[in-house]
Amino acid sequence: MQFASNKLIRGITSLLDFGTWFHAFRILHYYGYSHVREKRKMTIGAGSHMAPNTSISNGERIVIGEKCHIGERCYLWAGDSKGRIVIGNLVSLAPEVFITASDYGFVKGRSFREQPRRERDVVIGNDVWLGARVVVTAGVTIGDGCIVGAGAVVTKDLPANCIAAGVPARVIAQRPEAEA
Predict the structure, then answer these.
(1) CB contact set of 53 (below 8 Å; sequence gap of 6+)
(2) Is residue 123 part of a domain?
(3) Splitting the chain (180 residues) into consecutive groups of 10 residues, what average pLDDT does each group show?
(4) How far is 96 from 32, CA to CA, in rounded Å?
(5) Could you give the CA distance from residue 146 to residue 155 in angstroms, rounded to a whole number?
(6) Which CATH number do you get for residue 120?
(7) pLDDT at 13
(8) Which terminus of the chain has fewer Cβ atoms in its 10 Å neighbourhood, N or C?
(9) Domain total for the chain?
(10) pLDDT confidence of residue 75
(11) What is the extent of the structural domain holding 62?
């Protein structure tokens, strides 16, 4: 009986604690984060799903095809004015993939924050798999059927059906033909 009364006391104390109410507010506030609002602006194909902690910037310039999987803690950052991210069908992004359609220039005599932004589209073909923590930089096209190994940094276009890895990413093999 003592256990039940201690549990009741802890429950009442918790309800009276300001921290409990503050935490509830934080949970409600979570739904106002940019990724929640930005997701509504995106074009997302049928059967595609993304982790709830995906970071999205400028969702109106992001298109995701059908039957795609966007893993935990991925970043999809389209440009502020024109740089788009277009992802084909049947694409899988492992956790912590970072795709950006914008980067900075390197003008001498200007501070980092004053550097001009360069926005260029990122296009990812159909049936592409990006491993954990892959970074895809602005202006890159990844061809249909590519597999990019974990931790790779893709700074240049990748041809269809290749397997790429490394920093910067480079083609290390071709996907084999399907067996009959």
Answers:
(1) 35, 72, 73
(2) yes
(3) 73 75 64 67 94 91 98 95 97 98 88 87 98 98 98 98 98 88
(4) 22
(5) 15
(6) 2.160.10.10
(7) 79
(8) C
(9) 1
(10) 96
(11) 31-174
